[in-house]
Amino acid sequence: MLVAAAVCPCPPLLVPEVAAGAAPELDSARAACADALGVLAAARPDLLIVAGPVEPAECGVYPAGSPGTFAGFGVDLAVRLGEPPAGSAVAERRLPPSLAVGAWLLTRTRWSGAPVEGLGVGVPSAAARCAEAGRELAGRADRVAMLVMGDGSACRTVKAPGYLDERAVEFDAVTARALGTADLAALAALDESLAYELKAAGRAPWQVLAGAAQGAGLDGRLLYEDAPYGVGYTVATWS
Prior knowledge:
CATH superfamily: LigB-like
Structural class: alpha/beta
CATH topology: Protocatechuate 4,5-dioxygenase, Chain B
CATH architecture: 3-Layer(aba) Sandwich
Strand order of the largest sheet: 3-6-2-7-1-9-8
Distance between the termini: 12 Å
Number of helices: 8
Strand content: 15-25%
Helix content: 25-40%
């Protein structure tokens, strides 16, 4: 059963070494993410699942200890997704960027609670499949927590990665409100086509979260919502 969740954005710029001189611009987001992970630790889960958007070829499970790197962003920084079980083979499948950022957040906050596992959720995944995957995740242990990585629209300004789209502000407002109030119906109803057009990679992982939370009776709290660089970033907790 899902007992807690933290929703965080996943731009590599969240890592100060990647952002370099621009790092202070996301200090508030980093602080909110640290607070959100504190909620996960307080829930004392038996299993923590880090879910993030990936390309279709990167979908699937990433076991504890899976390695990641930010070398592709010009930084010699390696991370691992938690610690592998004693005696297990070293995981070799490399983390995609969204899960690498999640692993960095866990390392930064010195996660030492439940075992960790990653799940790559394909950006184009259908809403119904996302909900089904979430329900399966919630049944993995008596007390499951999720760290859900994902960004909102990338079309908030003319300098945004997707240029300006007038629909982006409303889309991000709807998702921030849904994430901040744990509104499962609103998340499940997010339009797949619109999210794709607005380059909102968080849509699929958020719908996985909504599926996992069915029947859990969780309350939400919005910790951060902004659009630096023209991309919608939201931090929220469910508990």
